[in-house]
Amino acid sequence: MHETTATGREALDLTTRLLQRVRLAHPTAGVWEAADVQWWSRKPMASDGVARPFWLDDDGPVAGVVLTAWRESAWQVDPVVVPGAGVDVAAVWARAVELARQHSPGTFEVPVDDADTAAVALATDAGLVAGSRDSTGWLDAADRLPVVPPPAGFRLVDRVGRDDVPHPMVARNGDDVARRLAGLSLYDPALDLAVKTDDGRVAGYTLLWHDERTGVGLVEPVRVEDDFARRGLGRAMLTAGIDRLAARGVRRVKVSYGSEAAGALYRGVGFTPTSTSTWFGPPTDEPDGDAPAR
Known about the structure:
Pfam family, one: Acetyltransf_1
Radius of gyration: 19 Å
Number of strands: 12
Shape: globular
Keywords: Acyltransferase, Transferase
Largest sheet: 12 strands, mixed
CATH architecture of the largest domain: 3-Layer(aba) Sandwich
Distance between the termini: 33 Å
Strand content: 25-35%
Number of helices: 8
InterPro entries: Acyl_CoA_acyltransferase (IPR016181), Bact_Acetyltransf (IPR050832), GNAT_dom (IPR000182)
CATH class of the largest domain: Alpha Beta
Number of domains: 2
Protein name: N-acetyltransferase domain-containing protein
């Protein structure tokens, strides 16, 4: 085993392979899928140029530190270790917290699976305190609901052959989002869905991810615009997207969420809540800063 450091696209590629190894080693271990970090790279971040460590064996990465600057003053750090890889988890955690304290100009958070008592202890031993919580649900693709079409006046579209049409996520993610997504190894334009009105307005969008190596699908993100809420658009997008994932051979689908409204939507299309995570960070008096906007 040896240690290396990486930034930018090289770090993303190593992180993708690392999280795939985590999932192949355990069906539910860890907080994130490889597709999560690919989604986070949809726009440039201040953390992109920060070198972060990875530990590799003959088959690739077995541990690493993921840094994500959601805003200049609010960062996220994730110590990631493949279960059973023989890595000193405490050492990876120490490096992760050190990097976060060194590079985040404001505050930072570390998400921890509440069932991972060893990680919870490492967070508290590092002087971090518990903050917000979110939930994760899983769905067996074989148990998916039938596809629900959007209501009258709306139509479902994907990004196949639509490179000349502005991406539905441009308003929140910048003009370059389509190009950046297209360059990601797990992105599939047929799983990049939106619901539009008959006159062409974007009413909602979702992006689903197919990780062929792990057989896992991910839902991230889902958005219905306020003017079109409570019309069944989220359900229509999700049932169609999950059906497309199943057609590609996905066995299980995962989603994470932080509100009861989102949880109700996901439970309504068949997801079963399986775990919760707590976001740990420095005490509020050390130093000041906004919480990451995830």
